């Protein structure tokens, strides 16, 4: 590769690699803004319920076994 | 040593580890490698960059909860290792882990696939036989885990660890 072509090639690479990342939720871009709005808007309750509720339910079962009934105690 | 043995802390640790392992299988294999569904893919079909990114965030939060479950399981298991009244039984731990995986499949399947309908195992099919197979695997793993725990009768006496106060 000719030396004078290195800077524009590098620039193209940087732009090409960073453009998709600009869609991230904290990025200042059209897609980023859309993602951010959905995360704190209509999807918030569904997302929190869907991710947290199963783990809360399982946590309740584990706490009941650890601190209360369930399992078995043995004398040795 | 005539100390009453208590398996409940070991079972609790194993269940949390099983929930973590099961959650990671779901998240890594189904969400990421096979991309059969994402956390909110029934509400946000991954047909645009924005929807893919929204699902990616909720998938990340799901993995964060899975990581926390695993970390808490390791912590509880470590505490079991320091307690002389908790039998150090591989069979009980394995049974609890398999049971924990089953509990995760059953609870997550019921809540997310059948009650909230935020996603399904194979999203393009909606509620399908795969969702019931997922629930069935949960019941099966729970039964296997329970049988393993119940069949564990042999608890060797624990020797105090160096530096550990009984």
Entry keywords:
A: 76 residues, 68% helix, elongated, B: 166 residues, mainly alpha, 2% strand
Structural category of chain B: mainly alpha
User: How large is the count of helical segments of chain A?
Assistant: 3
Rounded Rg of chain B:
19 Å
Average pLDDT confidence of chain B is 93
> Could you state the oligomeric state of the chains shown?
heterodimer
Strand content of chain A: under 5%
- Approximately how much helix is present in the residues of chain B? 55-70%
Q: Estimate the global geometry of chain A from the Cα principal axes.
A: elongated
How would you describe this structure to a colleague?
The complex is a heterodimer of chains A (76) and B (166). In chain A, 68% of the residues lie in helices and 4% in strands. Chain A has three helices and one strand. The longest helix of chain A is centred in the C-terminal third of the chain and has 25 residues, at 43-67. The mean pLDDT of chain A is 82. Chain B has helices spanning 8-33, 49-81, 90-115, 129-150, and one strand at residues 4-6. In chain B, helix 1 (8-33) runs antiparallel to helix 2 (49-81). At the A-B interface, helix 2, helix 3 and strand 1 of A face strand 1, helix 1, helix 2 and helix 3 of B.
């Amino acid at each position: 590769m000719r030396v004078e072509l290195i800077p524009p090639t590098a620039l193209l690479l940087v732009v090409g690699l960073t453009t998709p990342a600009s869609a991230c939720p904290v990025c200042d871009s059209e897609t980023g803004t859309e993602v951010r709005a959905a995360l704190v808007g209509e999807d918030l309750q569904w997302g929190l319920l869907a991710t947290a509720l199963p783990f809360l339910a399982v946590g309740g079962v584990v706490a009941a076994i650890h601190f209360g009934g369930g399992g078995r105690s043995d004398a040795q | 040593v005539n100390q009453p043995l208590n398996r409940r802390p070991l079972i609790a640790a194993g269940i949390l580890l099983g929930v973590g392992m099961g959650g990671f299988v779901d998240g890594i294999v189904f969400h990421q490698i096979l991309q059969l569904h994402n956390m909110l893919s029934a509400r946000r079909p991954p047909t645009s960059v924005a929807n893919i990114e929204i699902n990616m965030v909720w998938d990340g939060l799901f993995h964060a909860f899975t990581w926390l479950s695993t970390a808490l399981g390791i912590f509880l298991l470590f505490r079991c290792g320091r307690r002389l009244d908790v039998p150090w039984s591989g069979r009980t731990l394995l049974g609890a882990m398999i049971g924990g995986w089953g509990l995760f499949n059953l609870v997550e399947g019921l809540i997310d696939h059948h009650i909230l309908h935020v996603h399904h195992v194979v999203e393009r099919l909606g509620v399908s036989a795969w969702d019931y197979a997922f629930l069935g695997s949960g019941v099966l793993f729970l039964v296997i885990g329970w049988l393993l725990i119940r069949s564990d009768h042999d608890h060797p006496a624990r020797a105090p660890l160096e530096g550990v106060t009984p």
